[in-house]
Design brief:
Elements: H1 6-12, H2 16-23, E1 28-33, E2 39-47, E3 51-59, E4 62-69, E5 74-81, H3 83-92, E6 107-108
Antiparallel strand pairs: 1-2, 2-3, 3-4, 4-5, 5-6
Helix pairs in contact: 2-3
């Protein structure tokens, strides 16, 4: 089976256009598969020097976007909803060092395992 081109993918699933747009701006994505190898969600992130933007996609209508401040492990921005809506808001989110960027920590982010960090 040949993989779809970006253009063919967007024709088949228009909501992917925004996902491809952020992919081209330093976002990294990881597929999450169940024990049978079926895709259950797609996780993505973009690292800034002082923050990380993240997205978790369960379906076209079940998506969460976050900005987490580095060091504080605090969530300063979050949105849930449809893929197109969350991506549109992520695209509009100012860079973490911009004067109008969100800075008020609203919740603690869960501790995530990363290579070199045993917890």
């Amino acid at each position: 089976m040949d993989p779809l081109t970006d253009a063919a993918s967007i024709r088949a699933f228009p909501e992917l256009a925004g996902l491809m747009a952020i992919r081209d701006h330093n976002w990294v994505f990881q597929r999450v598969l169940d024990d049978e190898g079926h895709l259950t969600q797609l996780d993505g992130f973009r690292c800034w020097p002082t923050a990380t933007d993240a997205i978790r996609i369960h379906s076209a209508t079940d998506v969460i976007g976050l900005r987490i401040l580095s060091g504080e492990n605090g969530i300063v921005w979050t949105r849930t909803g449809a893929l197109t809506d969350v991506i549109a808001e992520l695209i509009e989110l100012p860079a973490p060092d911009a004067p109008n960027a969100p800075t008020l920590v609203r919740a603690s982010a869960p501790l995530l395992w990363t290579p070199g960090n045993p917890f």
